[in-house]
Design goal:
This protein is mainly α. Helix content is 77%, strand content 0%. It is built from 4 helices and no strands. Helix 2 packs antiparallel against helix 3 and helix 3 runs antiparallel to helix 4. The radius of gyration is 16 Å and the shape is globular. The two termini are 20 Å apart. 15% of the residues are buried. The model has no long low-confidence stretch (mean pLDDT 81).
């Protein structure tokens, strides 16, 4: 990719699929801790890690940071995603022992399927 090139549609889908799997995996990994602590940890992961990785990647390439999505909208979307996961977990917990796995699968699916269109729509308005 050139410094100002846009990711391809396939690359964007793969990136969001990988992110969805990582977020879902993080949800399952924390299934034995208190839900509030788990949600807070996941919020920190999804809000802090991507900008840090972006800065490290731009420093390694010795290029200026590429244009990015508006930070406020991105943070709000990620926090709402975690809040929705907490709600799903609370609703499913009395019904099944697999609540964490179902929630993780839902997180991964929402990120993988909804991420690329959301990214493109936000990027077009940025």
């Amino acid at each position: 990719m050139t410094p100002r090139s846009e990711p391809t549609a396939t690359g964007l889908r793969l990136a969001y699929a990988a992110a969805g799997l990582l977020i879902g995996g993080a949800w399952v990994y924390g299934r034995n801790m208190p839900l509030w602590e788990h949600a807070l940890r996941l919020c920190l992961i999804v809000v802090v890690v991507p900008p840090v990785l972006h800065l490290v990647r731009s420093r390694i390439r010795r290029r200026p940071a590429a244009q990015h999505l508006p930070l406020r909208q991105l943070v709000v979307a990620k926090v709402l995603l975690v809040v929705a996961a907490v709600a799903v977990e609370l609703l499913l917990d009395p019904l099944t022992a697999w609540a964490s796995f179902v929630t993780a699968a839902a997180l991964a699916t929402v990120v993988a399927v909804g991420g690329p269109p959301w990214h493109r729509s936000r990027h077009d308005t940025a």
